[in-house]
Specification:
600 residues, 3 domains, Aldehyde Ferredoxin Oxidoreductase Protein, subunit A, domain 3, alpha+beta, Aldehyde Ferredoxin Oxidoreductase,  A, domain 1, 6-stranded mixed beta sheet
Amino acid sequence: MFGFHQKYLKIDVESGSFQEVPISTEILRKFIGGVGLGAWILFKESKQGSDSLSPGAPLIFCFSPLVGTPLTTSAKFAVLAKSPLTNRISDALSSSHFAIEGKKTGFDAIVITGRSKTKKVVVIEDGKVTLQDAEDLQGLSAIAASEKLKEKLGVGYQIASIGIAGENQVLFANLSHERRHAGRGGLGAVLGSKNIKAIAVKGSLRIPVAAPAKLVEKARELSAKSFGPATAKYRELGTVSNLLVFNRLSVLPTRNFQEGHFKPIVSQNFQDVETASKVTRHSCAACTIGCEHIYQGKQGKVRIEYESMFALGSLCGIENPDEVAEIVGLCDDFGLDTISTGGTIAFAMECVEKGLLDEPWLRFGDGEAVKKAVTLIAGRKGIGEILSLGSRQAAQLIGQGSIAFAPQVKGLEIPGYEPRGLQTMALGLAVASRGADHNRSGAYEADFSPDSGRLIDDADFARSAADSENRSALIDSLILCKFLRGIFTDFFAESTELLSLVTGWEFNEGELKTAAERVVAIKKLFNIREGWDCSEDTLPERFFTQALETLSGGVRTLSKLTLQNRIKAYYEIRNWDEDGKIGAQELKRLGLDDLFEVVT
């Protein structure tokens, strides 16, 4: 078979046993790979209602048919689990050589279950699995642990690891590989709960493609387009440039979403850091875009992106970009998701400001306080014990109405998009299965589009959000980088061609559109099985009760009723019932009718 190994590897780290589990052609065609296939495996391998940090909870590394091909940005892998932060599905993506080497071990996915009695590393080489002692890696950052493990194992291994936060099961700890992170939802905590420090992969089993010559020709075409204007922003300044743009438009979340612009940025150009401390620009494996901008911080080289700079900068009121870069480096060392870290600390700062939390040192604008809070969170010490649970659970413990301004949806902290100013994105954030999410829903594109004025009624907003979610679902299943999306003229048609060249299957555009809807649906089904109801599809009360002032002196508001009506329209477009549940007829259309009894 072209493009797939047709099996996944299931490892029980408690017993040390492992088995190969076949995957039918029908399943591969339905779910493709990456997030889609990973969601199907997660549904199959996890038990309803199980604790996300229990031994039986699976952690899944999933590859795609495009991995290992010459297609630009195809060297990516998905990591999935039930999130300890949200108790809903978590699917994160990361890039680089782990994906290529992982697929070469002979599997389309790797599933980790159980809990080792002692600290271990999982080593996989061409289908052979060993568990090796990891006591000497404890307390190290993911980067340091990977370097030390490579010295021990020898040449050719690629390693995904956790830092101290993952070892301590901080609920928003991440998994890291080559300074790239599977960041959101606490996947590092899931690995840490299994007493596993790292996964090392090495392989030699390459999968052939159906039309190698035509695929190389197509790869050259995509690579040439990736050097064009659609990706220039990512090459030249990176996503950090969003800080200035979003601030000018008053959609830059500031001081825990109390404001939409950060006044210091008006006088202090955040691009100064570009010339002051930039070391180099770097590309992921098999990528021609080169979006990664590396800076020299006090703790070494740091990768800087908009989401990190917003979450640990304007959201916490920190003005100095070099200080923010230092805090980003600290999060990387500990293995913390920067968005959830910044969101939770900013929430705690507002609690202190309102007299709800007795930590007078934790104030907006104090960089040293943020560094201290990050350290306490990673070690789960002092106030860090509460904050390590994320803003939703922290609010539940603090009480006093603080849940109204905890910046989260379904427990996942909100990324750097102001919902009152970007109202299509507000809908996307509310309905996303992973929680507040800018990667599983690119609905902000509609808000920034010159055609945004054409979004008139609730159905327009709903259709735009659903279409964006469908595109993301397909991109994340293929897997390709979302920074590549602008180079496609007709994404579904061109994706059909790419997949056909790799697998030899005769796809049509309609089949891929249905596959994308199926991926959205199975993630939703997982959440329904785990207790989801439509009351979770909303935003914090702050966004409905507090107006947002703009730099020009205007005011923006978001009506709760308006959002609820758009959510109902979204359900209708998805062919879900008015409570957001998926009925038997729609499940049959999507080929998911075998799961109906499981979730009803």
